[in-house]
Amino acid sequence: MKPLLFAYGTLREASKLQEARFLRASAKRIARAKLPARLYDLGEYPGVRYSRKKTDRVVGEVFELTENPRAVLKYLDAYEGEEYVRKKYLVELETGGKVEAWVYEYVGPLDGKRLIASGDYLKAG
C-alpha cells in the first residue's frame, strides 16, 4: 500500500488552495476519518496536537499518495514549514477500521490560540 496522509485543514478536499489541488492530483481520497487530537485556530490555518483523551477528536480525510509519494511529501513538508512536524498516527476511518497515516502536527506555541471544539476546521466558522 502507498503512504497515507490525514488532511484536517487547508489540504482537505473542499479547499481551493493550490497545495490542496496538488494533493488531489497526486493522491486518491480514501475516506473521512478522525484523529485523536485537539484542533487549534492559528489564524489562516489550523494546527493539531495529538491527544490521548477519548473525547478529543479531529475530523479530516485520508488520502493515499499515488503519484510519486516521496516528492509529494517533500512538497507538502515545504508548504507546512517549520511549525509542523510530519508524524505517523493511527486514524479511524469513517468506513471502519484504523490505518496509519502521516499527519502534520503543529509544534509551535499555543499561547492565545483558540481551540476548535468541534474538531472540524470546515465548521470552525
Describe what this molecule looks like in 3D.
With 125 residues, the chain is of the alpha+beta class. The chain contains 2 helices and 8 strands, in the order E-H-E-E-E-E-H-E-E-E. It has helices spanning 18-26, 69-80, and strands at residues 4-7, 27-35, 37-41, 46-50, 58-65, 84-93, 98-106, 114-115. The strands form 2 sheets. Strands 1-5-2-6-7 form a 5-stranded antiparallel beta sheet. A 3-stranded antiparallel beta sheet has the order 4-3-8, with no helix packed on it. Strand 6 (84-93) and strand 7 (98-106) form a beta hairpin. The longest helix has 12 residues, at 69-80. The N and C termini lie far apart (36 Å). The mean pLDDT is 95.
Architecture blueprint of SSEs:
Blueprint: E1 4-7, H1 18-26, E2 27-35, E3 37-41, E4 46-50, E5 58-65, H2 69-80, E6 84-93, E7 98-106, E8 114-115
Antiparallel strand pairs: 1-5, 2-5, 2-6, 3-4, 3-8, 6-7
Helix pairs in contact: 1-2
